[in-house]
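call fold(seq) -> tokens
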Amino acid sequence: MKVFLKAITLALSAATVFNAAAAENNNPHSIIRYAIWSNPSGTFHPTLYFSDYDRAVISAVFSRLFILDEHQNPKPSLAEKYDYSNQGKTLTLHLRAGVKWHDGQPFTAEDVYFTYATEADGGFPRDTPDFVKHLVGYDAYHVGKTATLEGIKVIDPQTISFTFTAPYAAAFSHFADKPVLAKHIWSQVPVKDWNKATGLLRHPVGTGPYKFVEFLPDQYVKLNSCAE
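ret:
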């Protein structure tokens, strides 16, 4: 299985990589072929994926709020900075302005709320992450007693807060592991039916450095560099 990344440069590890000529512009370095051990299943969804092969595609197509450095400290990505209040129980994130999804729609705090609130939904198709269980109001939201998750608040388009029942340092690990997904796309499908939305799962729209082009099962995934 190969993931084709149309790009000038790309950092790769633990993989076999080789360059091939690009038919459309005759540039021998405009396509990088990145070989992986097995085929992705086609679950290219930031919170539903279950294999490292799907994750390889997701990591290129989607951005995270933060990434972690070699010392496991958070580094800015979609979020520029953060601060704590409420005795360390409320974490407020300040998002980068001007970010757009690959389809041209703006990225906002509503996408962030949607991504992590759906993990607390009673119909979420995977095991409920520990992250959301620590949020204020999780129990009521999970069983459907309330339509909003109290522990996540959109303050403005570029600001969002997470309030936990107690200080929760592992929040950054979750942000670094689970990228943000597009509300304007996935809100069209009930959470309980996400695993059945094959067309959306196999045509991801992200904010990352590579834009999805094509997935041919058992053969390849093609992504274009957003830098072009």
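Residues 6 and 31 are 5 Å apart (CA to CA).
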